[in-house]
Amino acid sequence: MPDAAYAELRLADVILHAGDVLVPELLDELATFAPVHAVLGNNDHELVHVLPETDVVVIDGVRVGMIHDSGPRAGRAGRMRRRFPDADIVVFGHSHEPQCELDVDGQLLLNPGSPIERRRARTHTIAVFDVHDGRIERAAIVDV
């Protein structure tokens, strides 16, 4: 990973990975920085039966839904609201296309992109967010 990604990891209180971890050793490495929550990606063959397909974690009172493949952009907000009706944030991956947008109901849809495989994205990215007392204080896509 780029040095800038490691710099962000050193600041993290919790690390969320939206799938395509590929090898369990990456989870071990990430855990040296902060507690890790990850979901199973379509390329995580070694992690089947290890990682869940979806997860919901609560971070300082903020409910975060996690899934790898949220489906096509069209209709995504509605699908994620139905899948995670009580989540304040939904973290997803698969497309490697960074996204940080509130849906019409106020649910934050957050795709971090990728720090190593940018595909159609213009840069390598990760996402960061700050929460406090049940509120999202900041959420951003960060170039790394």
Draw up the topology in text:
Layout: H1 3-11, E1 15-17, H2 24-31, E2 36-38, E3 54-59, E4 62-67, H3 76-83, E5 89-92, E6 99-102, E7 108-111, E8 125-132, E9 135-143
Q: Give the termini distance in whole angstroms.
A: 9 Å
Radius of gyration: 14 Å
N-to-C series of helices and strands = HEHEEEHEEEEE
Question: Which residue ranges are poorly predicted, with pLDDT under 50 across at least 5 consecutive positions?
Answer: none
Q: What's the helix count?
A: 3
- The number of strands is 9
Main sheet, how many strands, which sense, barrel?
A: 5 strands, mixed
Strand content: 25-35%
Helix content: 10-25%
Query: For the largest beta sheet, what order do the strands appear in spatially?
Result: 3-4-5-7-6
> Structural class of the helix and strand makeup?
alpha/beta
The residue-averaged pLDDT reads: 93
Give the overall shape. Answer: globular
Plain-language structure description:
The strands form three sheets. A five-stranded mixed sheet has the order 3-4-5-7-6, with no helix packed on it. The chain is built from three helices and nine strands. The protein has helices spanning 3-11, 24-31, 76-83; strands spanning 15-17, 36-38, 54-59, 62-67, 89-92, 99-102, 108-111, 125-132, 135-143. The longest helix has 9 residues, at 3-11. The mean pLDDT is 93. The protein is of the alpha/beta class. It is 17% helix and 33% strand.
